[in-house]
Amino acid sequence: MQTSSNSPPAARPVALVTGAGLRLGSAIAVHLAEHGWDIAVHYRHSREAADATVAACTQAGAHSAAFAADFNDETQTRALLPHVITYFGRVDAIINSASRFEFDDANSFGYAQLDQHLHSNVAAPIVLAQALHHHLSQSTTPTQSGVVVNLLDQKLWNQNPDFLSYTLSKAALEAAGTMLAMALAPRVRVVGVAPGLTLTSEFLDQATFERLHQLSPLGRSSTPQDVASAVLFALNNPAITGTTLLVDGGQHLMRFERDFSKMQA
To answer: Source organism's superkingdom (predicted)?
Structure first.
């Protein structure tokens, strides 16, 4: 387990954002830093990107540090939150943004691919929620509570046959959110946030991304800022648990035969 910089005094609430070195996780981390949160930036391999997120959070006025863990390794996963707590003195929220997203379908499906998706996309968020609940249960303040926000996907409400193992893992995480919200209350709230098509990737060129991004009832899908704002809302609203906020411009209301990454034509 690696971390960067020296331990700060713990004054502001602390959020652990997984997968925060890159893309949506980084945007969420910086947005929370701008709104009063100190940020633990989790990464697996992208140390330089994680350090850049730490720098952006620090510039926004937050205390921030980077922490490495491979979520396919249960020992590393279980060690992550205690390490963050040792550094900051507390953790108030976990945002599970890290996600394995690799292609398979009914023809190419196999045990190994599903196992990898379930470990990183389901088991790790559950272990982290378990650890947060344990941490808060040890608090000398009876009313101290926390929040877990799980990043899901609008395609759970608008399924297609692509990315079979990924979709199964996100469906399992959505179901786990319901169960954890019941099991960990009242100490820990659990909320899902389900974006639509939000960022371009190696699967989509820019022109195709921009066209597909407009395919929604609102004429636009989600932006990183939209998703980050929804996460902040979930953290701040004490009456929300066991449900999912769909932040997708209404894409889940439409029917797509293929995943966006397969809609190049």
So the answer is: Bacteria
What is the rounded distance in angstroms from the CA atom of residue 263 to the CA atom of residue 265? 6
* In contact, 215 and 255? CB cutoff 8 Å: no
Considering Cα of 222, then 224, then 226, then 227, what sign does the dihedral take? positive
Cis before 186? omega within 30? yes
Q: Strand order of the sheet with strand 146-151?
A: 64-68, 38-43, 14-17, 93-96, 146-151, 188-195, 243-247
| Structure tokens, 243 | 């449900």
CATH class of 14-262: alpha beta
The domain segmentation of the chain, as residue ranges, is: 14-262
In 10 A of CB 143, how many CB atoms?
Answer: 7
- pLDDT digit string (tens) for 26-46? 999 999 999 999 999 999 999
What are 147's two structure tokens? 């929040």
Which pTM was predicted?
0.94
Residue 163: what are its φ and ψ, rounded to 5°?
A: 55, 55
Closest CA to 228 of 87, 58, 57, 90: 57
Closest CA to 102 of 113, 110, 89: 113
Name the band, by pLDDT with cuts 50, 70 and 90, for residue 150: very high
